[in-house]
Amino acid sequence: MFKKYVIERNIQGIGTQPMEALCGVALQSNNVLDELGTDIQWLHSYVTADKTYCVYMARDEALIHEHARRSGFPANAIAEVKAVLDPTLAPA
């Protein structure tokens, strides 16, 4: 069974990179994901000034660490998502 994870990556200046550079980052990540197989999937990332917050589905946290090691992107913090909250959960 897959679990959802949020990965915080400290990458100085990532938010000032041009789109072409961010596309290169995505390509590098995708290449490593292809190597790791079907037990890990990248859903999306949020880019801020000096960090990215990446959302992944994976069999376990070890695969997140392995992706970070092979891709060269740090995984400074990894948290398993236990629930998702949104405005539709509030009573009418």
TrEMBL record:
Protein name: DUF4242 domain-containing protein
Taxonomic placement: Bacteria, Pseudomonadati, Pseudomonadota, Gammaproteobacteria, Lysobacterales
InterPro entries in the record: SCO4226-like (IPR025336)
